[in-house]
């Protein structure tokens, strides 16, 4: 039995005065110990965090977390985030292209959406694009939703033209 039992379990068994412990009582001992010491892990999903959407219409697209709802809401009782992302990425631009062609190829088609945390993959990147006036409540009204998308597009295109955060504006190949 000792050769099969992992080292951590043997140590716990020895620290329990070498009494015979069956697996269920050992498991309950470990779980009770974890309850006493809650993990102090920080939040990963924060406003400004770049995430990848994993499923749905926008699967494989990059997005920025605008607002998080860790505890959920009355309508959506699960952890979710309000996102602003890129549906259609800008195309490649070369020096020899004219101004008009560069302008056309630099357009971005954004999306704004509320997504469950289970369908997001956080990255190590963060962007400091401000979306303070945005709220998930505005998504229900089509006119406000259109205005949100337009404001998002303007902010993304400004950032793209400034040359910052190039990785965010490149299509993810998968």
From TrEMBL:
User: Could you name the Gene Ontology cellular component terms for this entry?
Assistant: ribonucleoprotein complex; ribosome
Name the Gene3D superfamilies on file.
Answer: 2.30.30.770
Q: Does the keyword Ribonucleoprotein apply?
A: yes
Molecular function terms from GO: structural constituent of ribosome
The record, for InterPro entries, names: KOW, Ribosomal_eL27, Ribosomal_eL27_CS, Ribosomal_eL27_KOW, Ribosomal_eL27_sf, Translation_prot_SH3-like_sf
**Superkingdom classification of source:** Eukaryota
Q: Where is the KOW domain?
A: 44-71
- Identify this protein by name: 60S ribosomal protein L27
- Whose protein is this, by species? Pieris brassicae (White butterfly)
């Amino acid at each position: 039995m000792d050769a099969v039992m992992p080292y951590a379990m043997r140590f716990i068994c020895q620290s329990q005065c070498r009494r015979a412990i069956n697996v269920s009582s050992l498991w309950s001992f470990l779980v009770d110990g974890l309850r006493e010491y809650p993990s102090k892990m920080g939040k990963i999903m924060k406003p400004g965090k770049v995430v990848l959407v994993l499923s749905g219409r926008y699967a494989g697209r990059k997005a920025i977390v605008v607002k998080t709802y860790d505890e959920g809401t009355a309508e959506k009782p699960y952890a979710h985030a309000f996102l602003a992302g890129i549906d259609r990425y800008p195309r490649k631009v070369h020096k020899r292209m004219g101004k008009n062609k560069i302008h056309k190829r630099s357009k971005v088609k954004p999306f704004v959406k509320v997504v469950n945390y289970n369908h997001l993959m956080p990255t190590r990147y963060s962007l400091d694009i401000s979306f303070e006036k945005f709220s998930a409540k505005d998504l229900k009204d089509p006119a406000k939703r259109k205005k949100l998308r337009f404001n998002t597009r303007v902010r993304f295109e400004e950032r793209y033209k400034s040359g910052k955060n190039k990785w965010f504006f490149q299509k993810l190949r998968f």
